[in-house]
Amino acid sequence: MTATATDPGSDDLTFAWSWGKGSSESRIYYNNGVGPDPPKSPDGVFPFNATDTTAHTYGDNGVFKVSLTVQDDDGGVATYEILVNVHNVAPVINEV
Asked: Is 78 within the bounds of a domain?
């Protein structure tokens, strides 16, 4: 899955993925590409886009709620949710 978020200020963005059944992962994208944005952004405003790409493998059939929460470093939040239907291939017995 791939998601892009835009921040109109100079905030860092954290992408937090929840795959259902308790598994999750997150990544932080720094506005300056190096480290955390100082409190109150004293160096000015630098809008930016961040894109996060990730994948997840499910071990069995099911319907799973995948959610993405993107949060900036001053409390702004956006959330997106989708249901994913997983259909595994049926097992095959091979004669030896």
From this structure: yes
9-66 pLDDT tens trace = 888 999 999 998 889 999 999 998 888 888 777 777 888 899 999 999 988 889 999 9
Radius of gyration of the chain (CA): 18
Total domains present in the chain: 1
Rounded to the nearest 10 degrees, how much is the dihedral formed by the CA atoms of 45, 47, 71, 33? -90
Q: Would residue 92 count as lying in a domain?
A: no
